[in-house]
C-alpha cells in the first residue's frame, strides 16, 4: 500500500479489477484507450460497479517480475478513484481516473505514485508513459508528476485499430531499489 496525500494505491482484488475497468469504460476514456467493444461494460453495469467500495476480498498477487496493477482509492470517500498499471517488462506506465474523480488534479498524484512504485518497489530505473498529443489532461498530469518529454514512436495503434499521434514522457531515478519478500 502506498499512501499519497489524496489517494491510496493498493493491490486490487478481483472485484476491484472489474471496478477499475468500469472506471475507464466510459466514452470519454475510450476516446484515449480504444478498447475493443467486448471489453467495455454497459453503462448501467459500469455505474453499479463504481458505487461499490473497493478492497473487499483477497488481493491479487501477481509476480512482481511482471509488474503490477494497482487501484487508487480516494482517501476522503473511500471509493475507487482510478487505477495504474505498472508493467515492468515494458516500463510503460498507464493510468486512468473514474469519471467523478477527473478534473480534480488527481492525475499527477496517480502518476507520481505509479512512478514511485515502479522505481522503488519494482526497481525500474526509468519509467515511460505515452499519450495522444491532444490529451491535455494526461500531459498535464504526467508533467505534474515529474515526467519529462522523451523520444518515442510518433504513432500509437489502439486496440480498436485506430492510429493516434503520440507524445512520450520519461521519469528517471537513481539509484533504484527493489523490494524483496522475506520469509
TrEMBL record:
This is N-acetyltransferase domain-containing protein. InterPro entries: Acyl_CoA_acyltransferase (IPR016181), GNAT_dom (IPR000182). SUPFAM superfamilies: Acyl-CoA N-acyltransferases (Nat). Coiled coil: none annotated. Signal peptide: none annotated. Residues 6-148 form the N-acetyltransferase domain. Gene3D superfamilies: 3.40.630.30.
Amino acid at each position: 500500500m502506498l499512501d499519497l496525500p489524496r489517494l491510496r494505491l493498493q493491490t486490487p482484488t478481483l472485484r476491484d479489477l472489474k471496478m477499475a475497468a468500469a472506471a475507464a469504460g466510459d466514452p470519454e476514456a475510450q476516446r484515449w484507450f480504444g478498447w475493443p467493444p467486448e471489453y467495455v461494460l454497459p453503462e448501467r453495469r459500469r455505474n453499479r460497479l463504481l458505487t461499490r467500495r473497493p478492497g473487499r476480498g483477497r488481493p491479487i498477487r501477481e509476480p512482481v517480475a511482471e509488474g503490477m496493477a494497482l487501484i487508487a482509492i480516494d482517501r476522503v470517500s473511500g471509493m475507487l478513484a482510478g487505477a495504474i498499471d505498472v508493467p515492468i517488462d515494458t516500463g510503460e506506465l498507464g493510468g486512468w481516473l473514474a469519471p467523478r474523480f477527473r478534473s480534480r488534479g488527481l492525475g499527477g498524484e496517480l502518476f507520481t505514485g505509479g512512478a514511485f512504485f515502479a522505481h522503488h518497489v519494482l526497481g525500474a530505473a526509468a519509467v515511460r508513459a505515452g499519450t495522444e498529443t491532444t490529451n491535455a489532461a494526461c500531459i498535464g498530469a504526467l508533467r505534474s508528476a515529474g515526467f519529462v518529454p522523451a523520444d518515442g514512436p510518433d504513432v500509437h495503434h489502439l486496440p480498436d485499430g485506430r492510429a493516434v499521434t503520440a507524445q512520450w514522457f520519461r521519469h528517471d531515478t537513481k539509484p533504484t531499489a527493489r523490494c524483496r519478500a522475506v520469509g
